[in-house]
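To close the section, here is one more complete example, presented without commentary so you can practise reading it yourself. The ligand is NAP.
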Amino acid sequence: MKQYTLVTGACINTGVAIVEKFAAEGRSVIFTGRSPEKVATAQARYREKYPDVDILGYAIDSLLDERTVDEASVEKLFAWLDSQEIFIETLVLNAADQGLGITALENPLTDFMKVLNTNVVWNYCLCEHAVRRMKEQGGGNIVFVNSNTAYRAIPDRIAYVASKGGQLGMMRGMALDFGKYNVRVNAVLPGMIRTDRWEKNPDFYATVPSRYTPIGDVADGADIADAVWYFAACARNTTGAELVVDGGNTIQLYPIIPKDESLERTGGST
Ligand SMILES: NC(=O)c1ccc[n+]([C@@H]2O[C@H](COP(=O)([O-])OP(=O)(O)OC[C@H]3O[C@@H](n4cnc5c(N)ncnc54)[C@H](OP(=O)(O)O)[C@@H]3O)[C@@H](O)[C@H]2O)c1
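Output:
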């Protein structure tokens, strides 16, 4: 069997940095996205940049509808991998429904279910299929790209926060149950990552990093990719672990307000 790393949701943003890190290390990679066109474009870009590495794109959706995970499409993916004699030794669960625009007490329950189904149930389904093969092959590892919102809530994102908290609990449960198959399961917990969404919001970018992180900066995709790589390739004796990559965001009690602004707010003067 040929060994590959599978990275979900890797046509844009953090997923791209993860694929590129593994490709730069010489690993064969399969990545997923939901749109065949976006997958084809990303695959062409990866192949141009890493001509000596095997990088394959695969279009897959997570949901049949808001209520039901598309288990048949996951079965189809793994049947295809089996037919190609491809073994997923490392599974990186990066894709996520961000759960944006869901207002508590207003949106239908199915909006909440969609986020939970993608971020928890679909990921469980991928893990089930991957771990059956890892067990047969003598081991493997899984890395969740989770979030520091699993520890601390952010406003207007109840579904997302619940899904990342649930995902983190699921990671620990899997680490416990799959250790006997020599399968390690770990999670990277990013805070804010610079993505295409930041470029659409320059005012936010100008003030937020310095106030919300003691080191005054947010992560690049490459910072997250390095942490994923650590779990996948350098952490033989680590399972059930969490690596927070958030510039220290989670450890502060309240944002750092520049002195002159805090004085303005309280009406004080120097
Ligand atoms: N960005 C941040 O500031 C931040 C902070 C903390 C944690 N994180 C976590 O880090 C990871 C990467 O973040 P990101 O901002 O780079 O992600 P992103 O661009 O928002 O999403 C990654 C990919 O997930 C796929 N996706 C979205 N909804 C999906 C669904 N219902 N089913 C299947 N795939 C779906 C999309 O791929 P396609 O459209 O191509 O299918 C999307 O490109 C995520 O797990 C996120 O929760 C991000």
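Once you have examined the tokens, check your reading against these statements. Residues 109-137 form the longest helix (29 residues). Residues 9, 11-15, 33-35, 38, 62-63, 94-98, 118, 145, 147, 190, 192-193, 195 surround NAP (CB under 6 Å).
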